[in-house]
Amino acid sequence: MPPLETFPLLSPAEFKTICHGFVALQQNLLSTSQSLKQQIWSLKEKKLPWGQDSVIYLSLSKLARHWPAGRPSEAESEVEGEGEGEGEAEHDITEDDPESLPPLRRLPNDPILIAVEYNILYSPTFRVPVLWFSQPPQGVVAVEGKLTLGDHPVTGEISWFVHPCQTREAMEVWRGTEVETDTEWGRYLAVWLELVGRAAGLDGRGVGGKE
């Protein structure tokens, strides 16, 4: 396949091509990357009621850990754990007696699993991919030029996204490499996702052939 014509900018057709290539790249890496199995992107196409053309995008659902407010620090947890251990040692509790064992319960400081939906869509304005997601990493606030809120192009709901204003500059360093020339395997998206994914709570492992 020919290289990207205006790298690092993309045309809608080129974005569609590298999306298909990226999905193929994932399938090719599945046999060697166990971590990748937790981050499989699927290709989707949706007809929007206000447009004539269908929208091609990538989607990923992932569980993220969120800690309750007021969670104690690790040092406090260790001290608290030591105290509990000493208290338990004072009691004559045996595993042979079920009635003597304390009931299992969810601790107030245990993390809560929250489902996060990630989407990769094409930006006609910036001509680069944009990463949208339903829930930001804990403690993250909206920052102009980095993470911000906006209307999701497909769902219309208020969602978070990594602002694409710096994508062109970040991807420029890959000019002349296989990221520009190898459109068959969508390596553009693999590298791009490693650059922007961490801001949204994705570690990027496996998608670019790295562990």
Automatic annotation (TrEMBL):
GO (cellular component) term, any one: cytosol
Keywords, ordered alphabetically: Autophagy, Protein transport, Transferase, Transport, Ubl conjugation pathway
Protein source organism: Pyronema omphalodes (strain CBS 100304) (Pyronema confluens)
Acidic residues: compositionally biased ranges: 75-99
Family: Belongs to the ATG10 family.
Top-level taxon: Eukaryota
GO BP, sorted A to Z: autophagosome assembly; autophagy of mitochondrion; protein modification by small protein conjugation; protein transport
Residue segments, region Disordered: 69-104
Pfam family, one: Autophagy_act_C
Protein name in UniProt: Ubiquitin-like-conjugating enzyme ATG10
InterPro entries: Atg3/Atg10 (IPR007135)
GO molecular function annotation: Atg12 conjugating enzyme activity
